[in-house]
Amino acid sequence: MEKQIPVASRASNIEYAIRDVVVPAAILEEQGHQILKLNIGDPSAYPGLPTPQHMVDAYVHALQKGMNGYSPSYGLPELRKAIARDEVQKGWDAKDSDVYVCHGVTEALQIVFASILNQGDTVLAPGPHYPPYMAYPQMYGATTVEYKLKPDDGWKLDIDDIESKMNDSVRLLVLINPNNPCGSVAGAEEVNRVLAIAERWPNCIVVADEIYDGLDFTGEHVSIASLSSSVPVFVLNGVSKVFYAPGWRIGYLAIHDPTNRLIEVRDGIERLLRSRLCASTPAQYGYLAGLESDRSWMAAYSSKVVAQRNLCIERISSIEGIEVESSGGAFYMFVRLTDPKWADNDKKFVLELLHEEHVLFVHGSGFSPTLGKGHFRLVYLPEINVLNDAFDRVERFLLRHRSA
Ligand SMILES: Cc1ncc(COP(=O)(O)O)c(C=O)c1O
């Protein structure tokens, strides 16, 4: 092979477990095998959960009306207004000017990290966590440290662990609520305890990733910003999950700055946003229609998802070799492998299951090498017959490979 031109380590260090396991699955598909995919948190990849028609119509209408140009860098004014109104409903005093529309929460995260992190800074994020919280901060010379979610107590936040890991270098304290990959939901009591800790560290901002907030099946979910009277909060949300349109790539960052300490940070964020021009213009109209229209359709979607969740819990409880803490939100559960053979090598479990039984999950260690180990993430968006088929295959596989 020719001597290769070197790649930057910030790129070669990136891992995204959720899509990495798709590579061997695609090879099997090319060979003609059909794979049961329980790996990707994209509702539109599964039947029965389409993007609502009125939102699609608004997107199409925007295209037909020629809304194909650049739009304002911080978002369409009417969309910023609708998002602020939505956040006010969730309990805090959001203004249109607090809202910045991005290409999904993913872009908002990159903007947040780029505007806050310097060499030597720390991001304190839950373990296990959604992978970009580990992947991106290192691009800025920062490090992600994980605080524990309690594996035997519904993946609740380990408040003592958070407290013990706080120091002056922690610039961002991340809450993903409901959580990906665990499906856990933190209620007001837990959130208040985290805010009380953050309050003692004046350079720390709380990142509230609430992209699954409308998929809370416990009734416990609260807006983190709504509980904060002094700690600054970056609220992240968008069209991907609750409005079932992840491919539109529209999300937002809303800044709650109750004590006015983010004037310089806001300026930095706005500069970054201007330098990347704008988010997709017609897609913003689609999201606007979702926010401004009746949302009664969501109840039927949620009850379908809950029925699928319940089926998974029932099936898992009857299969030897796996167990799970109930999932209170999002559409994930983080399933524990109890046989030591797999508990020590969850990636091997996922890959062998894929090759032998053609069922695809994501290995838990992809969400945290230590705190996710011995688990796999299951997405309960497929229909009940597919889930049942997948569990039949998992059961067969575990039986075949049971440790002596
Ligand atoms: C916790 C969390 N945040 C953000 C995202 C990505 O959001 P977006 O599609 O808005 O970029 C995901 C996607 O799975 C997620 O699980």
Description:
Helix 6 (104-116) packs across helix 11 (263-275). The strands form three sheets. An eight-stranded mixed β-sheet has the order 2-9-8-7-6-3-4-5, with helices on both faces. It has helices at 9-12, 17-20, 22-30, 53-64, 77-89, 104-116, 132-135, 159-165, 188-198, 224-227, 263-275, 281-292, 297-317, 340-343, 346-357, 384-400; strands spanning 36-37, 99-102, 122-127, 143-150, 156-157, 170-176, 205-209, 233-238, 251-256, 322-324, 332-337, 359-360, 362-363, 375-379. The chain is globular. It has two domains: 9-50 and 297-400, Aspartate Aminotransferase, domain 1; 53-292, Type I PLP-dependent aspartate aminotransferase-like (Major domain) (Aspartate Aminotransferase, domain 2). With 404 residues, it is an alpha/beta fold. The longest helix has 21 residues, at 297-317. Strand 7 (205-209), helix 10 (224-227) and strand 8 form a beta-alpha-beta unit. The structure holds pyridoxal-5'-phosphate. Residues 41, 104-106, 130, 176, 180, 209, 211, 238, 240, 246, 251 line the site of pyridoxal-5'-phosphate.
In short:
The protein is built from 16 helices and 14 strands. With 404 residues, the chain is α/β, with parallel strands linked by helices.
Question: Layout of helices and strands, plus pairs?
Answer:
Layout: H1 9-12, H2 17-20, H3 22-30, E1 36-37, H4 53-64, H5 77-89, E2 99-102, H6 104-116, E3 122-127, H7 132-135, E4 143-150, E5 156-157, H8 159-165, E6 170-176, H9 188-198, E7 205-209, H10 224-227, E8 233-238, E9 251-256, H11 263-275, H12 281-292, H13 297-317, E10 322-324, E11 332-337, H14 340-343, H15 346-357, E12 359-360, E13 362-363, E14 375-379, H16 384-400
Parallel strand pairs: 1-12, 3-4, 3-6, 6-7, 7-8
Antiparallel strand pairs: 2-9, 4-5, 8-9, 10-11, 11-14, 13-14
Helix pairs in contact: 4-12, 5-12, 6-11, 13-16
Bound molecules: pyridoxal-5'-phosphate.
